[in-house]
Amino acid sequence: MSLKKKIALSFIISAFIIALLAAFEYFSFVEIRKEIRYLEITDTISRKSFQLRRHEKNFFLFSPAKADEESAAVHAYIDELKVLLSQNPDIDRADKLSLRAGITEYERLFGMIETTAKKLTKAFEKNRALFRKNEAFYILVEATFIDRPSQSADSLARAFQLPPSHFLIRGLRELDADIHSLRKTGEDILVVSKDLDKVAREKAELVIRVSQAAILIFIPIFFIVGIGTLFFISTNVVKRLMLLINVVEKTGKGSYPHLTVPPTGGKAPDEVGVLIDKFNTMEDELSLREAELARKNKELIQTKKLAAIGTLAAGVAHELNNPLNNIYLSAQVLAKDLDESFKPGVKDAVTDILGQTVRVKRIVGDLLEFARGREPHFQPVHLDELIRHVYKKLTIDSTRVRFSLDSDSLDSTFTADPDQMEQVFINLFTNAIEAMPAGGDLTVKVRTSGEAVSMTVSDNGKGMPKESLDKVFEPFFTTKDKGTGLGLAIVFNIIKKHYGEVSVTSVEGKGTVFTIIMPRAL
To answer: Are 499 and 473 in contact (CB under 8 A)?
Structure first.
């Protein structure tokens, strides 16, 4: 995964956590607001239930004039409770039904008590004249009968010997029963309203606790994920960049090491991985260029060396050529004048002078050929025919040396100087044959590829030691007892003038392979 994608993914994860927290907190806020509203409703119901009971108590304690005000207040609170229950569908259905039934029953009982109280009040006023003897006691009972109807009935029954079936006694007994039922119903209403309020408070507290817990959970997760991802990415990137800096320093000192990237299906893991891949590619290219530069420098040095040696060789060959000709002519004259009268040793000495003079003249000739180094005259040359012509020209013993030409093209024509290329193959074939004194295989392969032609001349002779391979194209370097060391130097010069490359590989005891690569057209 790329660095850009990693950063984007970490941002998306962090943003998702924050969005999730925000969404959760939003819904929690909505739920809290809902629960607070519900709590306000239940608290209002509870408060009004308490007020209802307070006015109920005042109704039984105060005088008839004041009782009317308390009665109106009781009815007002009953109406308000009914309105609250009808306008708030969020109240639990069971509690709502229970509370509504209690209020309805409470209203019914309170209405019955009011009716009974009015009837009893009229009855007390109507019967007051019958109890003139204890009028004061009677007035006291009349004033307190609503608050204590049962005690008032007992007092009337004892004081005035009223039977249980008397209207006042029976009415007070019924009023007392209704008051007990009213108070019990009022208590039930208070219990239900308190339960509603308690449940509402618990729900609100629960929602608040859940919201707090969400904050305590999501915020650390956000910081852990965000900071953890940031730490992982930065540490990973910085670590690899530091490795890259160290390798760059080594590169500046001429070393070209590689940075390893963990395998990821053939692709770099991120931008830093791509940078490392590019850097490794650059390292390879720098290494190749340095090797190429070293090779070019070596070739330049070789060329300069050849040029200097060529200049020296031209001067030496010119100075030696005339004396050698005189020696050779004089030796020939002397050889003709020798007869049987001369000692055998003299004749052998003259013959040796002639042979050595010829050898030196050949060396001088090679020096002149190397020194002249004329520019090639380019013309179309059929390579296969040229190679076969050189092989026939050398008159090699076919029973000892097995020659084979392997060409992959029917048209092996290329642009070159035929004389100089003939000299190249003469020198290479001669070296191959001399490397196989007991005979062997001389193989020439020709391969064309686009605008280039490749030629290899190989033998299975004695080969060359590794330390000699870097010197084979230097003038006067030879591994043969009687070699001049100029043949391969001449080959090198000719190939370079044809804008080609020549190289050699060899294994001791297995043979040598010369490879020439040249352009087909110039």
So the answer is: no
